[in-house]
Every structure is written in C-alpha cells, then in structure tokens.
Design goal:
Layout: H1 3-10, E1 15-19, E2 44-52, E3 55-64, E4 72-74, E5 97-104, H2 106-111, E6 116-117, H3 119-129, E7 137-141, H4 151-155, E8 167-168, H5 170-179, E9 184-186, H6 205-212, E10 216-219, E11 232-235, E12 246-248, E13 252-256
Parallel strand pairs: 5-7, 6-8, 7-9, 9-10
Antiparallel strand pairs: 1-13, 2-3, 4-10, 4-12, 5-11, 11-13
Helix pairs in contact: 5-6
The structure holds manganese (II) ion.
Length: 257
C-alpha cells in the first residue's frame, strides 16, 4: 500500500476517531493507599503568564502530577516483579499500537461491583469473536467511566473500608499474559486491578503478573462503549519520561464504521 492510500483510507469517512482519555485537572480522582504507604499527588497547574506583563502575547502554565494520575499508562517497571523491565521511555513504537479487545461486563458490574473478569468470560468472548490475538489491548468494559467525576461511586468504598470496583481475577490475568500473550490490560477504574485485589494471592495480580511479564496497563479510560468488541486500534503513547514508571496519556482509538 502506498502512503497515499493509507491517508486516503484513514480519512475516507470509513473510520471514526475516539478519544479514550478522561479530563486531567485538579478534580481528577486519584488512587488512595492506606497507611503506612505514601500516596501520589494529583494534578495541579500554575500560571506562568496569561497575556499579561509576565508574557504579553502568550499564555502558558506549569503542571505537576504523579505519573499514575488520571487516564494513564503503567510500564513494567511500575511493579517490583517488572523492575528489570522497561520504563515508559523505552516502550517500542510498535507497542504503542494494538487491537482493542473489548469484553463487555458493564451490565453485570452494575449489579455486582466486585464482578471479576474470569477465564470463562474470556472463553465466551472468544467463542463469539474468535481467539484473542497476541499483542492486543484487552479492555474490561465495566461502565465505570460514568463515575470518573464522582469519587463516592468511582471508589465505592464499602463498610469494610475497601474499594469495591471490578477487575480481572488472578486466573484471568495469568491466562491473558501467558496463554494469549497480550500487550496489556485496560480498565475504566482507577487502576488495572479490582478494588479488593489487595486480598488476592498474589495481591494486585494485574500489576504483579502483567508487569512481571513485561506487559502494560491502561487505566481510567473513557468511551469504551464506543468501541466494537474487536477490530478497533488503540494508540496509547505515554510521555517519554526517562525512567518513568507510568505517564498520563490520552489514548485514541481508530474505529471502523
Ligand atoms: Mn498506574
């Protein structure tokens, strides 16, 4: 295919471009770890100038935030199991593109916020849509994006003090990493693991196992409901922070109409 054909096809009207990012601002909800762990700062922004005496014709700001704030990318070195792996800056360009595999459990998650993605869900998906290809982004569609601006619903902390939000089971993570060799796991929630995943063995399996195998995570996504079960392409490119363990990202999807 010539370059001309690529551009022609991409902008032919046969594809829709979907923004999978959530807004990034002072209200962006962030993970809260219990004592004695240190927490990440959220997003903040400070004006340098705004068409004023500090810069008469221009506006610009300084921003600061943790690497794992808002819609963001988890690199392998984010977890101790992946400490010999790569940082966001070292992710090869090929890995910034992958097919979106969207497993829709939104209706069930609305009924049961602790709903886990199980191997049986994956096999049921494959029966209908074919085998999940290697190096794809597997997304668990939970409906949680609608709560991204509502901390109470987004974290859904129970009487036990634990967040109750959906995520993958240990077996599902092992299956996707080892049997399907995926690029990484995507969620609409604050992290790639279920709210109660601190109680799993191993704890936080999506971090422990995925990153240990050199795989990635994408969190706090928006608009997964605009993607088909298969056939869309996700472009997720973190900032090229040298040695960075993660980065805010505005993932995009190219969706065939
Ligand atoms: Mn993270």
């Amino acid at each position: 295919m010539s370059n001309g054909n690529l551009v022609e096809q991409l902008f032919s009207g046969n594809f829709e471009f979907v923004d999978l990012g959530q807004p990034l601002n002072e209200d962006t909800l962030i993970l809260n770890l219990p004592e004695p762990f240190k927490n990440t700062p959220g997003f903040s922004k400070e004006k340098i100038s705004e068409y004023d005496e500090d810069g008469p014709a221009w506006a610009w700001n300084t921003f600061s935030c943790g690497e794992h704030v808002g819609s963001h990318f988890d690199a392998p070195i984010h977890w101790v199991t992946g400490k010999d792996g790569i940082s966001v800056a070292d992710i090869p360009a090929n890995d910034l593109f992958g097919e979106a595999i969207v497993i829709d459990l939104a209706a069930e998650c609305a009924e049961n916020p602790d709903r886990l993605l199980e191997v049986d869900d994956i096999l049921a998906f494959e029966k209908e849509h074919g085998k999940i290809p290697a190096r794809s982004w597997v997304a668990m569609k939970t409906g949680w994006a609608q709560y991204a601006q509502d901390g109470e619903k987004f974290f859904n902390v129970g009487e036990d003090g634990m967040p109750h939000t959906p995520g993958p089971s240990v077996d599902a993570v092992i299956f996707l990493a080892e049997e399907r060799d995926i690029l990484g796991f995507c969620t609409e929630t604050v992290g790639t693991d279920a709210g109660i995943a601190a109680t799993f063995e191993p704890m936080f399996p999506c971090h422990n196992i995925m990153h240990g195998k050199g795989k990635y995570g994408l969190t706090q996504l928006n608009n997964l409901d605009k993607l088909p079960p298969r056939g869309a392409v996700i472009i997720a490119s973190p900032l090229k922070i040298t040695g960075g363990t993660g980065s805010p990202v505005r993932p995009l999807a190219i969706v065939p109409k």
